[in-house]
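Feature request disguised as a bug report, sorry. It would help if multi-protein outputs had a clear separator. Right now it looks like this:
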Amino acid sequence: MSSHNEDFEQGSVPQSSRRGFWSMLVVMLGFTFFSASMFAGGKLGAGMTFQGFILSVLAGNFILGIYCGTLAFIAAKTGNSIHILSRHAFGMKGSYLPSFLLGITQVGWFGVGVAMFAIPVQKYLVDKGYNCGSRGSLWLIVIITGLLMTSTAYFGIRSLTWLSFIAVPAIIIFGLWSTKISLLDNNFAGWHKFIGHNPGAGALAFTTAIAVSIGSFISGGTCTPDFIRFSKTSKVAVITTVIAFFLGNSLMFLFGAAGTMAYNQADISDVLALQALLLPAILALGLNIWTTNDNAIYTSGLGFSNITGIPKRYTVLFNGIVGTLAGLWLNDNFVQYLSFLNTIIPPVGAIIITDFFVRHHGNYPETPNATPVQWPAVIAWAAGSAVAFIPFGVAALNGMLTAAAVYHFLSYFKAPPAK
């Protein structure tokens, strides 16, 4: 069987195709090691005291770990992607809503990642004396980068695993190397500056800091089932997911914060450049973004495959082209895009968790409900998204709790699930 037919986009992953702890751990670490988390870490580092930074990152990633770990348990137990799981709560055609939402957001993440890599590469080439500083040259780099990243996602979970086996150690090494220089060199000058940082008038509220920590990856975290469904057991799925989101994502925040304190730069590629490590900077950034981008375009392909019935390998190619073409615009509007994702995506996962554990008591039937649209789930998603738009507290958490409560309430007014 060819590798691109091993992704089971329209059904459950059989035990014969399940993978062990280390294979799944590198895939999930490759997913969570992303430059956007380092940018977010830089923002927290600039706006928090050392103690506030540590507490907000740990609190945010603890919540992420619980949320994504719960989705991982469901995915490993059923062997289903988030798109197949959503059929139980949203109905067969109702599942098109979460598939569309997750699909377009992950295409967007792919585009952002392509631009995040292409722009520093252009700057590096210009610094080296190459005549490629024009917008047209940047577009050429963007297109080449997008095609390369799409090619590995085309071949599915096997390609993602091998890429992550290479990328994860490299990212850890470069990140720790940079952090060591930032904090420990020059008689620990950077370390003393980091632990004694006082943001003053620019301080972030603790709830805002937690929101940034959660929001940096909760939209991607909702897609956890698309990858972790290949785990041999639910135990493997939960442990690898919690490690990836609690440890891996926390490291990304630390790398970003350390760079901000020492060099006033949140992006590890810029930090490495200032540390006279230009080639490692390009390599670390490229591998960092490539792993997450391939996961993003892979899960978007699964989403549109659920809607259209077209094999995932074709939807991946189409989405890769769309994401590449939109990359520069999305990068220019990154903050607004991230805020938008944090309102519309988390309620989807909350509804699926509530449906699985409360309405179905921890056991989904092999065949999802054939009802075209399950309106309680649609209404609950709309309510959760609306509340998340209200500027108070932690938006993503508010949306999830509201969606879960509304769905649980409305479930009393429909027939119980089939035994």
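(second protein starts here, but nothing in the output says so)
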Amino acid sequence: MKRVFLDTNILMDVAENREHAPEANLLLDFGMSGIVHVCVAPVTYTTMSFLLRRFGKERIHEILQQLSEGIEVLPMDEAQFQQAMSFGPVRDFEDMMQYQCALAGGCDVIITNDKKGFEEHSTLHIMTATEFLQSLMEE
């Protein structure tokens, strides 16, 4: 089973019902049904809580609770931080931290709707939600 790492923007698509929410919801459904193994970094939820602060703490808690079901939260540690720092200035340090988390967590692919922050240094496959779903249909 593929280990799929979701970037924060994928869960934000669901939380805010954005343009790519249908694809993001399908990814989560595939994770719940065991078609893929879905992983995220702990910083995903801290970033989301900050971005969703306008909803208030009760609603934020509800959203985070809902969007953590069936998802493995991978550990992050000092080694990952140091590895991310070793790349020097990068376009998006949060993405670099998530990349290190996905790499250490044995993920096969990172799913994001903003590939630029990952493509700069990634050795993992980087795909949009649409691209990944298309690849599953072709298998």
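Even a blank line would do. Unrelated, but nice: The two ends are 12 Å apart (CA to CA).
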